[in-house]
Every structure is written in structure tokens, then in C-alpha cells.
Amino acid sequence: MSIKVGIFGYGNLGRGIESALAQNEDMELCAVFTRRDPDTLKIRTAGVPVCRAADVDSFKDKIDVMILCGGSATDLPVQTPALAKNFCVIDSFDTHARIPEHLAAVDAAAREGGHLAIISCGWDPGMFSLNRLYAGAILPDGKDYTFWGRGVSQGHSDAVRRIDGVLDAKQYTIPVKDALDAVRCGEAPELSTRQKHKRECFVVAAEGADKSRIEREIKEMPNYFADYDTTVHFISAEELMRDHGGIPHGGFVIRSGKTGFERENSHVIEYSLRLDSNPEFTASVIVAYARAAARMYGEGQRGCKTVLDVPPAYLSPKSREKLICELL
Amino acid sequence: MSIKVGIFGYGNLGRGIESALAQNEDMELCAVFTRRDPDTLKIRTAGVPVCRAADVDSFKDKIDVMILCGGSATDLPVQTPALAKNFCVIDSFDTHARIPEHLAAVDAAAREGGHLAIISCGWDPGMFSLNRLYAGAILPDGKDYTFWGRGVSQGHSDAVRRIDGVLDAKQYTIPVKDALDAVRCGEAPELSTRQKHKRECFVVAAEGADKSRIEREIKEMPNYFADYDTTVHFISAEELMRDHGGIPHGGFVIRSGKTGFERENSHVIEYSLRLDSNPEFTASVIVAYARAAARMYGEGQRGCKTVLDVPPAYLSPKSREKLICELL
Fold it and tell me: How near does any CA of chain B get to the CA of A284, in Å?
């Protein structure tokens, strides 16, 4: 029997979930829920209904796992606890500082409704968190580094677009190679914000706009750019569309640590991702954890979990015996 | 209350366990067991008894987790099931093909005695297995690659030492850079044994030995060297001691895969290790899983587990709340 999945919210992430489900034969898309007029929304999977978000509760008992695809700022803090009362749910809440609060709200709702939830699933938080945990437990005498990129930051791109005279823009976060190399050597350097990442902006300016003023406003923008070395390129709208239409991302979690009675031996553990599509990869992680959520619920587990709580074997469609034979 | 640990077998791995335990404040070394005369064995930790292996059962109920440090060929298939009747046990059994059989024997013994066991813990099997599992579950439409090295292979070094006229030798397994680069690009190439790894031998020959015959015998040795490009260097016993005394190792687990309705996006997940000391790193992994074993046993779990079954949070001495705040 396949795992019945609902998608709640159909943007980039929702579309990524839809295509990831098509790669997993043990899972089945049952319905897509939207706050838009369902008639205006065309999905890719034949025969699957598009429904009003307001009608979601009528699908109670028809869906094994509801995947929430809204934003962390305002959607998920409300939607995940609300839906956890009637469904097993999974989200990609990524406001790191507010995770404990979100976890508590979702846990209370899931326990009240007798369901299981997994929050903050994806690659950071998600696979990067897991790798920080494993590496830290193995090498307690060590130091962690996380680098992001090369990849598109939606928040920084939006910040540039808000500048007067900017028609459109795309911002890339890029790890500094010298910093990566120093960390990989096991040197455990202290690195400033500027030493770890640089930023590169591709900007379409309005005709007649003062480009040097725009460039200065970008480079001096507090929080977003002032602490980084930033490069600004002015390009045409056509070039932006042609060369910067994708949503690539990735990054590195590296821990170096010492072992031995004299701390005489160094070790470096590195996990890295190079992703053509940030939302599709995030969706692929979420779908694997949706499988785990269905299993854990089936075993009688309730409440809100995170990637740190899920036994790895639960992510795979293969039996434990097969995994032990083939992968261990 | 700290977790009370016993070490069963005191070679390179046993010494690694002893030094790893010294880095983990919540764990305590209680006794070392040896098949040698205990009076001949000097350990590093003050106040800890060295006992006869034959007397181990008198420590029943005094030790939370017994860590087995014997070899996979003949020691562990006998010792792990035998000790699992009276202790929670953990081993690093690494004969991949015989893991299912070992698991069944240890599971039966552990259930009979009411204990918990974890087998095949370390980095391969171990962390590499975990990464193959996670990456495969996330990117079902993809291909896995494991590269080992640069590192010392004990089995290959021993094989060279058995050649007539060889006094001592050290063999390094080295991943081929072009193959690594092709895999990292997401090309998913088909790679032969020769294309993935090369081998390098440092050999001390007896005075007057025929070096060209030794070199030929190495390069033509079936299974060990014939399928690889092998380089042989003849050096002095002093050079071998000075430059090749360590036991470094490491490797790479890389999966590349496709997502999207048209398989239009590529992703690469890479996990790598660079280790100064293979036994000390293996020991560090085992000690983290010994902590997990004690917790799972405390929760009432019984029988034989693997790294694929253990919830990640159980490896860390930190509370779940702290992990969620700091790492997620």
C-alpha cells in the first residue's frame, strides 16, 4: 500500500515535491491544496485534484502525510500547528532562532490530535544539521564550519530589488576558497564573516538610473552586504533571464578535530552539496522524511520530531535486511 | 551517572578506544580485558584494572557497554555473540559479505541475554554506510561511488610482506583524481577497478634480493594488485619507519542524481574523511555509538542494531533541547 501524500501550497517547493513523488513508487500524490482559486492552478500529475486550502479538513483520514510548502516567516508558524491536529505533517521551517518555539507549538497540536510531525526538514536545517551532529559526536575535541553556496539567496536578491532604480536582480553567496582550504587542512582557523563568504550581484538597472549610486547602496547595506566583499555587475534583463534563471545552491559542513592522548592526530570530516535546484533538492529530502513520518506514525509514535530523531533506515523504501546487505 | 565501559582486546583499536573515552566526560573506562598475561600489559588510564579475558563474566552488571576490539576474521564471529549474552556489546565487524550472518548470531545471543548490541560500527562499515543510505533515499534516481584512501591497507601490506626477499612493506590505496573529478561533475561514469584506485608500495628488500622479481611479483599478484596500476618504491628500513609509521586513511562517498519531471537538474552529495589515524577515528565513532547503545538499552530496546537503526541524537552527550537549539 502506497503512502498517500498531500501538498499544501504550490510554489517552487510544492512543484519540487510533486516531481520528487513521481520518483518514489511507494508514494502517491492525492491532492494539492492552494489558497488561490483552484481553477487557475494547473499541476503536472494527471488525475490529482487541486482543492481549496479552506477545505483541507475534509481530507482527514484520506491522507497519510501532509507536506507543507509555505514560507517560514508567516505561513508555517500558523499552518503547521493547525494542520497537525488532523494530519501527520512535515515542513521545512528554516528560521533557526525560532525552531524551539515552532517545535513546541507543533508538538502540542500533534499530540492533541494524535499525529506525528517532522519540522525543519531540508538541507539547512536538515542534512547540514545532521552532519554537524554526527561529526560533533565523533570528534568532541574539534571545531565546526558551515559554508553556503555557490547559490542564490532569495532574501539578498529581494533586498537589492528594493533599491531605487533597480528593475531586477539576483544575488549569489559564494564561499571563499582560501577559507575552505584552510579549514580542510585541519588548521581550525578563526574566520570573520568577510573571510568566509563573498557576494556577487547581477543587477538590471532602469534606463538612466545612477549605477554608481546603486552599487554604493548595495555594498553599504547593513546586515545584508556591508560585512562582505561584494561584486556588482550591471546586465540586461535578457542576460539575467538567460544566465541567471536557475536556483542553484549548495554548501559545506566541515569539522576538524584531534584525537590521541597527546592530541597528536588530526581528522577532517566534510559533507558537501552541489545543487542545480535548491527547491527540488529540499523537496527530495522532505519526501524521504515523509516516508519516515508515515512509518513512525504506524509504529505508534506521536508528537513533533526533527531529522535528529529519525532512525536513518526509515528514510529508505528498502527493507532493513536489504539495506544491511547492500549498504552497510 | 557516567556510562561504564569495558575494552575487550587491547591492540591499536583498543588503545584508540581508551584515548577516545578520555575525551568524553560522560563515559568511564572500567576495565580492559586481554588474552595475554595481564601483568605484561600496561595501559594509559590510571587506576583501571587489566583483567584476563577468561574472567570477563565476573564483570556482568558492572559494565554498561563492552567494546570488542578483536579482528573480523576469527575473533568477532565468536566473541561478539558470546559476550552479548552477558553484556551490551559493540563491535566493528567489517567483513561486508558476512554481516547478515554475524547480525543474526549476535541478535539471537543479545535477545537471549536481554541485552542490546551494535555491530559493524566505524567508518566503513559505519559512517560511509550511513551516507550511502541518506544519499540514496534523497536521490533515488542516481548513482553511488565509494573511494578509499589515501590510506594504508593492512591486508595489502601483509600480502607484500609475504613475498620472498621482502623484509617489511607498507601499501597505500589512492583514489584516482580524474575519476573523483568526473564523479563530482555529476557525470555518473562507469568506472573500472583500475580507473578508481591506484596502489603505491614502499618495500624494504633483503640484502641481495632480486628487486625486479619482487616488483614483478607484487604487480602481478591476483586480486591484490593485478587489476590496479601499482607503483613500487624500494626504501631502507629507517625510511619506512620514519616516513611510513602512521596509519592514515580516509575516502569519499559521492552520489550524483537527477530531479525534475524532465530529469533536468543534477545534484551531487559528497561525504569525505581525511584521517591521520584510522584506528583512533574508528574508535571515536564506536565510542559515540556506545553512548547510543547505553541509551537504547535504558529505553528497553533489545537485540542487535546497526548504525542504520540508531536515531542520530542518541550519539551526542547533549540533551535533545540543546541539540535542537545549537545544531538544527
Answer: 5
Please state, in angstroms and rounded to a whole number, the distance separating the CA atoms of residues A293 and A302. Answer: 10
Separation of CA A71 from chain center: 11
The amino acid at residue A217 is: E
B241 close to B116: Cβ distance less than 8 angstroms: no
Gap between the Cα atoms of A323 and B136, Å rounded: 11
Nearest CB neighbour to A137, from listed B103, B261, B315: B315
Q: pLDDT tens for residues B198-238?
A: 999 999 999 999 999 999 999 999 999 999 999 999 999 99
DSSP-assigned beta bridge partners for residue B274: A268, B250
A328–B96 CB contact, under 8 Å = yes
Complex ipTM, two decimals?
Answer: 0.96
Helices of type H across chain A: 12-22, 76-84, 99-113, 127-138, 154-161, 177-184, 193-196, 211-219, 237-243, 278-298, 320-326
C-alpha cell at A144: 565546526
DSSP state of B188: -
Spatial distance between the Cα atoms of B150 and B275, rounded to a whole number of angstroms: 9
- B308 and A306 within 8 Å at the Cβ level: the answer is no
Residues of B with Cβ-Cβ distance to A107 under 8 angstroms: none
Bridge-based pairing of strands A116-118 and B303-305 is unpaired
Q: Do B260 and A277 touch (CB under 8 A)?
A: yes
pLDDT score for A186: 83
Give dist(CA A200, CA A231) in Å, integer: 5
The answer to whether the CB atoms of A270 and B272 lie below 8 A apart is yes
Q: Which of A141, A280, A327 sits opposite B265 (nearest CB)?
A: A280
Size of interface A-B (CB pairs under 8 A): 212
- Cα separation, A113 vs A84, in Å, equals 7
pLDDT in tens, A131-152: 999 999 999 999 999 999 999 9
Asked if A76 and A70 count as a contact pair (C-beta separation under 8 A), the reply is yes
Nearest CA in chain B to A44: B261
User: Closest Cα to residue B221, out of B232, B210, B233?
Assistant: B232
In angstroms, rounded to a whole number, what is the distance separating the alpha carbons of residues B207 and B214?
13
CA angle B129, B132, B137 (to 5 degrees): 130
Q: CA A301 to CA A118: how far, in whole Å?
A: 12
Lookup: cell for B13: 583499536
d(CA B110, CA B120): 15
Closest CA of chain A from B315, distance in Å: 6
Cβ distance of A321 and B100 shorter than 8 Å: yes
CA gap A306, A54 in Å, rounded = 27
Nearest chain A residue to B185, by CA: A274
- Angle at alpha carbon of residue A74, lines to A68 and A80, rounded to 5°: 35
pLDDT in tens, B103-162: 999 999 999 999 999 999 999 999 999 999 999 999 999 999 999 999 999 889 999 999
- Which residue from B125, B138, B139 is spatially nearest to B308, judged by alpha carbons? B125
pLDDT > 90? residue A187: no
